[in-house]
Design brief:
The chain is about 0% helix and about 40% strand.
Length: about 130
């Protein structure tokens, strides 16, 4: 894994050669994950040409939104286009810009503990109460 941890991805797998190809992967600073391959409303087999992938994308300050990624035809002609299909509001707008810090300390008996400290936007340690 890289410094950002494991990232969700979608690979193709060739049943004859057993080769894989990474066609999509979540990229920092957002977290994205695949929700569904969107099959065309025809009897044609699923193809990489005009492939559509529904993904969910979120960040520490933004709620999850759904996006449709569409690959061009032919598949190797470029990067997918993207359309956001939702506009969900932040469930707690006042908490959107909180700063998060992981605090590690030791209990009096020597047991190491970890806590999550949330501070308001603009908070300066040692200056603000």
């Amino acid at each position: 894994p890289d410094a950002d941890g494991k990232r969700p991805f979608v690979d193709t797998f060739d049943l004859n050669t057993h080769e894989t190809e990474r066609i999509w992967q979540s990229t920092p600073p957002v977290l994205e994950y695949p929700v569904s391959l969107m099959d065309p409303p025809t009897e044609e087999p699923l193809s990489l040409d005009n492939l559509k992938l529904l993904v969910s994308r979120e960040s520490p300050t933004e709620p999850p939104q759904y996006h449709v990624l569409t690959w061009p035809s032919p598949y190797n002609a470029g990067v997918p286009s993207e359309v956001c299909i939702t506009d969900f509001p932040h469930p707690y707008p006042a908490l959107r810009d909180l700063q998060k810090e992981i605090v590690q300390y030791e209990r009096s008996d020597g047991t190491p503990l970890t806590a999550t400290l949330y501070t308001p936007p603009g908070y300066t340690p040692g200056v603000d109460p």
